[in-house]
Amino acid sequence: MTEDADDGRHPSFRDFNAVQLHVSLDDIEPRIWRRLIVPLDTTLADMHPITQAAMGWKDAHLYEFEVGGLTYGDTWSLSAERTDDDARVYDAQEVRMRDFSREPGVTFTYVYDFGDNWRHTVTLEKLVVARPAPKKASCIDGARCCPPEDVGGTSGYFEFLRVLLAPEPDEADEQRHLKRWSGGRFDPEKFDIAKTDKAVRNALRRARS
Questions:
Q1: Total domain count for the chain?
Q2: Which residues contact 7 (CB under 8 A, 6 or more apart)?
Q3: pLDDT digit string, tens, across residues 133-168
Q4: Are residues 113 and 170 in the same domain?
Q5: Same domain, 83 and 165
Q6: Both 117 and 163 in a single domain?
Q7: Which of 53, 59, 151, 197 could form a disulfide with 139 if both were Cys (CB 3.0 to 4.6 A apart)?
Q8: Which long-range contacts (CB under 8 A, 24 or more apart) does 98-107 make?
Q9: Are 34 and 52 in contact (CB under 8 A)?
Q10: How far apart are CA 76 and CA 64, in angstroms?
């Protein structure tokens, strides 16, 4: 059960223990998105496996967060990929959801796979009072399936869908190849909220193990 500042009870800031987030994959229409409830003590480092589970990614590539012009992530991994001219990387463990503004509409960017450059806009929709206080993140809504890993970014994904769903007459072999490559059957409209919520709830345990 959750309550928010609009329920007539006017909880004070110390009553809030979670935040409702909207995560949307940029540059693809119709939107691929998820709505999450995340404990306020969740760090940006925690948000990485949570977002991976929510969207359906496989955690096979590097990531970073862009917040207010600064870059946050795994400092060891990202620093190894950077030159002296690149911006400094800050530790994603040092920022928690409670550190953001209390006003709704605050956004930051989650970038996954620097080759395919999947950019996600994360919007802090509202603070909530969850009872009991949440210890894990959860997914409460969403739409559509995320692209396959290593498909080639947004342009590669659009071409993948074109050949898979509406191939030219001479593209039958390529279509069969893409079907095998993507696991036999890919449905861009598929979204299983129960499966996604279970993955999100288990995301931190799996990441830490």
A1: 2
A2: none
A3: 899 999 999 999 999 999 999 999 999 999 999 999
A4: no
A5: no
A6: no
A7: 197
A8: 98/40, 98/41, 100/19, 100/124, 102/13, 102/127
A9: no
A10: 12
pTM above 0.85, yes or no: yes
Contacts 24+ apart (CB under 8 A), 201-205: 201/136, 201/137, 201/138, 202/53, 202/136, 203/49, 203/50, 203/52, 203/53, 203/54, 203/137, 204/46, 204/49, 204/50, 204/136, 204/137
User: Do residues 157 and 114 share a domain?
Assistant: no
Tell me which residue of 34, 2, 87, 29 sits closest to 200, measured CA to CA: 34
Which residue carries 């009553």 as its tokens?
A: 15
Q: Are 131 and 15 in contact (CB under 8 A)?
A: no
Tell which wins on pLDDT, 12 or 126: 126
CA dihedral 142, 144, 150, 152 (to 10 degrees): -120
Q: Are residues 66 and 164 in the same domain?
A: no
